[in-house]
Amino acid sequence: MTGSVTSEDAYTAEPFVPARGGLPALRKAAADCHGCPLHRDATRTVFGAGKASARVMLVGEQPGDQEDRQGKPFVGPAGHLLDRALAEAGLDPADAYLTNAVKHFKFTRAEPRKRRIHKAPTLREAAACGPWLAAELDRVEPELIVVLGATAGKALLGSSFRVTQVRGTVLEEEIHGHPWRLVPTVHPSAVLRADDREGAYRGLVNDLKVAARALG
After folding, report:
1. CA distance 10 to 126
2. I want to staple 211 with a disulfide (CB 3.0 to 4.6 A). Which of 4, 85, 151, 183 is the partner?
3. At what angle do helices 23-30 and 123-140 cross, to 10 degrees?
C-alpha cells in the first residue's frame, strides 16, 4: 500500500492503513507508514502490542528512546512503572493492549550523537496518526480505554481535553462513530518527572483502580 506526503495539510496515515486483516496486518503495514515526517528520523514504527482479545486498551503519547530502539511500546522506565501500577491496581498487564497516539519517536538533540531528548508531538501529528489508532480500536474492541496523558486524550477526545479535569472518572464518549468507555489518567512519565513522585504514583494507581472497577 502506498501513500505520500505533499504538504502539512495533507498529513495522514489513511492511505497506508489496510482495510482488512487483523493486528498482524496492521503492524506490517504500519512499518512502512510515511503519513507524516516523523518517520524520517525515527528508527522504526512502534506499533501497539497485546492480544486482540484484550479487555482494556491503554493509549499513551508516543514511543520514547527505548521503545524506538526495541520496536515495542512501554519498554522504558515509564513502561516499567506502568506495569507496576497496573498490577497494584488489580489490572493484569498481560490482558492489556498497549499503544500510543503517535507511532514514531519525535525527538531533538543538543548535538550530534548526543542523547535523544523527547519532544511532544503536535496535534496535527497526532491527527495524522489517528487512522492507526482507529484501526487498533476496531480490531481489539476493548471494553475500556485508559487514556494516559494529555496528548492521548486530545487525540481521542479533541483539543479541549484536560486530563486534570477528568482523571480518575469513567467517561462515555463516541469516537469514530463508536461509543467507548474511557478512564483518563496521567502518563507514567509524568510520575517520573514529579517532585512528589510517590504521591504522583499513588494518584496513578488510584485512577487505574477506577478502571479495574469499571471492568468488573
Report:
1. 13
2. 183
3. 160
Query: In terms of DSSP bridges, do strands 96-100 and 56-60 run parallel, antiparallel, or are they unpaired?
Result: parallel
Q: How many CB atoms lie within 10 A of CB 88?
A: 14
The residue-averaged pLDDT of 49-58 equals 97
Q: Which of 50, 48, 84 is nearest to 63 (CA)?
A: 48
Residue type, 196: D
How far apart, in whole angstroms, are the C-alpha atoms of residue 164 and residue 176?
Answer: 24
The 10s digit of each residue's pLDDT in 148-182 is 999 999 999 999 999 999 999 999 999 988 999 99
Residue 8 — very low, low, confident or very high, per pLDDT cuts 50/70/90?
low
Domains and CATH numbers, the chain: 10-215 (3.40.470.10)
